[in-house]
Specification:
Serine Threonine Protein Phosphatase 5, Tetratricopeptide repeat; 4 domains
Length: 428
């Protein structure tokens, strides 16, 4: 626990860190004793690119305060730092220490996965298999199927193709639509299909709020309908009841709320509302005009904006397909939109045309390879070209894991997850 003076100084130092005044933050952290200040000094050094100093600070947390909650945090951050700078032996050692000494630490599964991935990249497939077999992520997490998928990949490399196929098959036939189940379906050439199911909705249908919500929705009085839907949402006790609430939000045009309600529900009845097809006139028209699979465009819109036509990101990207000013201006000129201005990106018709046009450009640059096209949509085509040059291109899984920017790597995974779900729901 920090002493009173140290506590005040730590708050000042953290404020300087948050303001980006990192040299001053480091100077202030140097006046404070304790693992927390040492850890955040490492974070500050890392932000200004002084990686050796950052690693030393992270390691010192463990060496000086091994019982502190910041000790595994420091080791894990040191491992990530070394891995990012391709000092893989050092990174492996840090991850091994986290795994061995801090099994209950929340990032220990991440440390294990990173260690397994290092082994896999180095061709040490038996070691990779052992790691991927021994750990797991929580079942409701985005990466829940990561360990079994890469366990199967390691088995393939070891020549145990039948065992690998069995794992791919279990992932491909899973009720969950995830990034890794999408990859597994490619592996075994399986086309998923969503089966229709009935909801247990008798209790909700009798609810006065439900009846009023339907009545107001049918009358087009959405403001009143939303009051009744909110009352239903607050009392929802089962997945079926939440799905019904989502359906009602969908009917009132609040697609954003409808989708987000179902984020952790994978029941077949939820999927058409979790992966809907709003703005269909514009999306189908411009997908056809620019030669896209409409389901890929819907997947991109879902992950970019959750169908919120008024969405604005921290970088001021706007609308359904989250276009930034420069990209939108250039695209508008090439498309020939008259009297274009930045605010027109809130018009779904304009946004979807410009987004579809730009997506076509980046896909064409990479011969239609979807992972490269959508990575370019997020990070820019020139940056992706450098990645292809330096790390090579392997379709889907290995290339995607090597994308050096975490945001882009996760972005590509999310879109492919959605693309797999859209195909299962609508392709058949």
């Amino acid at each position: 626990m920090l002493q009173p003076n140290d506590d005040i100084n730590f708050k000042i130092a953290k404020s300087l860190y948050n303001l980006g005044r990192l040299e001053r933050a480091i100077a202030k952290f140097n006046t404070i004793n304790g693992p927390e200040a040492l850890y955040w000094k490492g974070r500050s050094y890392e932000k200004i690119g002084r990686f050796k100093k950052a690693r030393q600070a992270y390691q010192s947390v463990y060496e000086r305060y091994p019982s502190s909650e910041f000790a595994p945090m420091g080791l894990y951050m040191a491992g990530k730092l070394e891995q990012r700078n391709l000092r893989l032996t050092n990174a492996s050692n840090y991850y091994k220490t986290v795994i061995a000494e801090y099994p209950a630490y929340e990032k220990t599964p991440d440390a294990a996965w990173n260690l397994g991935w290092i082994y896999y990249k180095r061709g040490r497939y038996q070691n990779a298999y052992d790691i991927f077999s021994g750990y797991s992520y929580p079942q409701d997490s985005f990466d829940a199927q990561s360990f079994p998928y890469w366990k199967a990949k390691s088995l393939e490399k070891l020549g145990h193709k039948a065992d690998a196929y069995n794992i791919y098959e279990s992932l491909a036939f899973s009720n969950r639509f995830t990034y890794h189940s999408f990859l597994a379906r490619i592996k075994i050439d399986h086309t998923a299909k969503v089966q229709n199911t009935k909801l247990n909705n008798y209790a909700v249908l009798k609810n006065p709020n439900y009846k009023k919500a339907v009545m107001f929705t049918d009358m087009g009085i959405y403001e009143y309908a939303k009051i009744e839907i909110l009352a239903l949402e607050e009392r929802a006790e089962s997945n079926d009841q939440i799905i019904i609430v989502s359906q009602l939000y969908n009917r009132t045009g609040n697609i954003y709320k409808s989708v987000n309600l179902l984020e952790k529900i994978d029941a077949p009845a939820a999927l058409p509302y979790k992966y809907p097809q709003p703005y269909s006139d514009a999306v189908f028209r411009y997908s056809n005009k620019y030669g896209h699979d409409v389901l890929l465009v819907y997947s991109l819109i879902r992950e970019e904006s959750r169908y919120n036509k008024d969405a604005v990101s921290r970088s001021n990207a706007r609308g359904l397909m989250q276009l930034i000013s420069g990209t939108a201006n250039d695209s508008a000129q090439e498309v020939g939109i008259q009297h274009y201005n930045f605010n027109k990106l809130f018009d779904p018709e304009v946004n979807v045309e410009l987004g579809s046009f730009y997506l076509r450009k980046v896909l064409d640059r990479y011969n239609g390879e979807i992972p490269l096209g959508i990575a370019s949509y997020n990070a820019g085509p020139n940056r992706v070209a450098k990645w292809v040059e330096t790390i090579g291109y392997y379709k889907y899984d290995e290339f995607i894991e090597k994308i050096p920017i975490t945001e882009t790597r996760n972005y590509v995974k999310r879109i492919l997850r959605s693309y797999g779900a859209y195909n299962a729901i609508y392709r058949n």
